[in-house]
Amino acid sequence: MVAAGQWSLVQRGIAAQHDLMNTPMKVAVVEAERDRALMIVDGLREAGDYDVTVIGDASSLERRLAELRPDVVLIDLSDPNRDTLEQLAVASGPTQRPVAMFVDRSDSAITRMAIDAGVSAYVVDGFRKERVKPILDAAIARFQLFTRMRTELEATKSALAERKVIERAKGLLMKAKGLGEEEAYALLRKTAMDQGRKVADVAQSLVTAADLLS
Amino acid sequence: MNFERVACGFVPLVDCAPLVVARELGFASEEGIDLILESQPSWSAIRDKLAFGDLQAAHMLSVLPVAMSMGLGGIPMRIDALSVLSVNGDVIGVSPQMAARIKGLVPAHSAHRATAVGRALVAAADGRLRVGVPFPFSMHAELLYYWLTALGLEAPRNLDMRTVPPPRMAEAVRDGEIDAFCVGEPWGSVAVDAGDAEIALPGAAIWQFAPEKVLAVRHEWVEDNRDVALRLTRALWRAARWLGESGNRLTVSDLLAQPEYVNRPAELIDRALSGRLVLSERRVPVQIPNFIEFYDRAATFPWRSQAIWIASRWAARAGIDRKDAIARARACYRSDLYREALSSLDADLPGASEKLEGGLESRIAVASSRGEMFLGPDRFFDGAVFDPAEI
Questions:
Q1: B41 → closest Cβ in A62, A79, A85
Q2: Which of A23, A146, B82, B181 could make an SS bond with B132 (beta carbons 3.0 to 4.6 A apart)?
Q3: How distant is the Cα of A87 from the closest Cα of chain B, in angstroms?
């Protein structure tokens, strides 16, 4: 293994080279979830000319970073492997801070956006802020998009599940009380209103009770 | 009284118990605090959220507020420790292969077990020893540095300290990434039950009274919310006192086992709380003295000498000005606020705010406001005594 300290020192040299020669910056995306990783990669490609690598396996994180020597590392704020990145920064000199954690604290707007989106960036020090910003902007937009898609997917799933249980409850009422479909639904809705509950919850209770009694 | 909302981050570990008890048993609401506990996936996350104001308070590694106040790590910022949440509670784990080699070298009932195990570990590693810790700024790392360098292991040349998230510790040992680790419970016991590791030593064998976690807040926040900070300190002290009553232990295990807290079986959590640890798979539990402390021996008091010890260790390793580091550390363990908060209660307060660290061989009565305080033992494994006044 390359010592973490060496890794960061080498990186600093590379960072300086990038600024001089305008070669594409190396961005490492630490993300185990494949769909999300691909999405971030696409976002970064749209945002500029970056050399992007995804690291999906936490156990090889240290080794891969030592090999890759990226300029910027993007990682989910809630990823437990963030603490391992912290160690790489400390090993390179706890007060020199060659790797700036998170985002520059002086730029509170982008910091706030990054926190809300759930992205943290580990950026090599000495990098010009304007070169990092488009990367962060792209990552933030993708993190938000992904979160929104997942929320929507979950909402759709739970709506579907609710509809199924209401259908079953209606069926049970129709059979047990000889009601028509609309009457059965009206009864469910009235009960829900009387008890201050959701129709789906009342339906679920009925279905559970019926399962127990059957 | 105004109900004050305080969002407090915690990492799912047995030693988050005082926060859980403060909320669930109503000690926080008695002080007019709506204590919202938010589980955090990493120490980096807890630090960032506290620093950026998403959290008002945090369950934090005792070393971290000192390090941040000294300007070390990612976010330099003045962070205050209002009180100590727990003392001791870590374990040193090794792979079963390493455990077998140690057993061949260490007599089962060695009087100086930490020395013997440490020497065996150094010998067995044959060169570079790879150890896992949860975070670079932690008591885990301090204990390992202290222990292994005192035994002659050269750091950093022959000590490769790696950061491994606690839930991955067992896997890292199994995959041969590390030879040993120091971690908080329940993760040592989880590794033992999985057959991936054996517990070679409790952390208390290296230092009998090591501050492990603190209640951390931003210094700026304390300035603006002094009254809330005092109320929070009182709530946590009451929670600690309740935790210190032995009859409450099983209730605590059940509480912590809940999915929103530690989310592990109560039996596993109870091992740490009772100090009865299973050291290797399918063995009977062993009673460990002083395994973890929440209340007794003035465990909650934020001794300035503890902060100074931490600062002087880091200053030496990082090569930074010792005097400045110590001044910052002294200011960050808020024994002044602790005294102010508890003066209205029937709490017993120590006569001093600094003490010799490692000076007490056994339990001994010390000067205090009610004259009922006992401290010690607090020895380091090598018998060294740290005098904060001599720094």
A1: A79
A2: B181
A3: 6
Contacts of A205 (CB under 8 A, 6+ apart): none
- Average per-residue pLDDT in chain B? 94
ipTM, 2 dp: 0.85
For the segment A85-100, the average pLDDT, to the nearest whole number, is: 61
Q: Is the pLDDT of residue B234 over 70?
A: yes
Burial of A170 (0-12, 13-18, 19+ CB in 10 A): buried
Interface of A with B in 86-145 (CB under 8 A): 86-87, 89-91, 93-95, 97, 100-102, 105, 111-112, 115, 120
Could you list the beta-strand ranges (E) of chain B: 4-10, 33-39, 57-61, 79-88, 90-94, 129-133, 159-163, 180-184, 198-202, 211-218, 276-277, 286-287, 292-293, 364-365, 374-375
A59, A82, A87 ranked by CB distance to B175: nearest? A59
Q: Which two tokens stand for residue B11?
A: 């990492």
Token representation of residue A97 = 């801070």
CB A99 within 8 A of CB A125: yes
> Quick check: A80 contacting B, CB < 8 Å?
yes
Residue A104: pLDDT band (50, 70, 90) is low
Single-letter amino acid, residue A89: A
Q: What is the pLDDT of residue A15?
A: 46
Residue among B337, B341, B333, B328 at smallest CA distance from B304: B333
B88, two tokens: 């001791």
Pairwise CA distance, residues A7 & B359, whole Å: 42
Interval B377-391 mean pLDDT: 93
Interface list for B 171-200 with A (CB within 8 A): 171-172, 175, 177
| A187/A184 Cα distance (integer angstroms) | 5
Please identify which residue in the block is written with the tokens 């590379």: A14
pLDDT at position A12: 42
Question: Which member of A78, A85, A86 has the closest CB to residue B41?
Answer: A78
Q: Is the pLDDT of residue A86 over 90?
A: no
Cβ-defined contact of A86 to B73 (cutoff 8 Å):
yes
Average pLDDT, stretch B278-297? 94
Cα torsion through A11, A16, A19, A20, rounded to 10: -130
Q: Smallest Cα–Cα separation from B182: which of B124, B216, B135?
A: B135
pLDDT band at residue A26 under the 50/70/90 scheme? confident
The sign of the CA dihedral A47, A52, A54, A59 is negative
Please name the member of A77, A81, A89 whose beta carbon is closest to the beta carbon of B74.
A89
**Lowest pLDDT segment from A159-163, B219-223, B240-244, B271-275:** A159-163
Q: How far apart are CA B20 and CA B115, in angstroms?
A: 36
CA distance B55 to B52: 8
At residue B127, the pLDDT reads 78
pLDDT in tens, B147-180: 999 999 988 889 999 999 998 899 999 998 999 9
